[in-house]
Amino acid sequence: MGEYSRSGILAPMRSFGAWLVHLYTASSALFGVWAIVAIFSHEFRLAIYLMILTLVIDSTDGALARATQVSRRIPWFDGRRLDDICDFFTYVIVPACFLIEAELLPHPAWIAAPVLASCYGFSHAEAKTTDHYFRGFPSYWNVVAMYLYLLGVRPEVGLAVLLGFSFAVFVPLRYIYPSQTRFLRPVSCAVLGLWILVFSWVGVRPDPDPLWVRWTLLGPAYYLALSACLNVYRPEETAG
């Protein structure tokens, strides 16, 4: 009787915990709306802070979902779809508004390149591979937009960067999924965590030192370098 009572109490608590994880994921969309308000108020530092916050949420909600077994607790609710909706909004739409309003492009019409490329990328059946990689550039437009702003890049240079990454969405190269790609996963998570901490400190400062901004590029450089290496050498396939 005691075990039955205990399980009867724990089941709703576990379901409630699963709902809290879904709410945590959905909160990134709310912060994204706040970021858009900040963008159109020309409070770009606040917008950067909020974009970083949505990045932190997206980097941690998957681990929480697996820990609480959300798909088992609420099988009829599609957490992956919720995550994709929030990601498209915070990784594509919010930075698109940032790029336009901060005048980081020669003309606002150029924003069509990353937005349309991301529509393709998010809709591809193999956007995330079975061995936990992203297929094509994973639309990290929030990171691109923040760096273009903090580095004071000229619109023509910003356009070249934007077009390059837009093209990369269509190229079927693999990019690591830091929290799930097995190869060097602890190192990748540590690098990502350190990058978020340092970049958060640098990004929201009123007048950040350009040297510090450039140093934080080591985080994205690690990500791109490891992804490039794993397209040549695939340890999972070799081990199999």
Instruction: Give the proportion of residues in helices.
Output: over 70%
The CATH topology comes to Four Helix Bundle (Hemerythrin (Met), subunit A)
User: Which runs of at least 5 residues are low in confidence (pLDDT < 50)?
Assistant: 1-5
Radius of gyration over all CA atoms, rounded = 19 Å
Tell the overall outline. globular
Mean pLDDT: 88
* Structure annotation, total helices: 11
Polypeptide structure, described:
- With 240 residues, the chain is mainly α.
- It has a single domain, classed as Four Helix Bundle (Hemerythrin (Met), subunit A) (Up-down Bundle), CATH 1.20.120.
- Helix content is 73%, strand content 2%.
- The chain has 11 helices and 2 strands.
- The chain has a two-stranded antiparallel sheet.
- Helix 1 (2-40) runs antiparallel to helix 2 (44-68), helix 1 runs parallel beside helix 4 (79-101) and helix 8 runs antiparallel to helix 10 (218-232).
- The radius of gyration is 19 Å and the shape is globular.
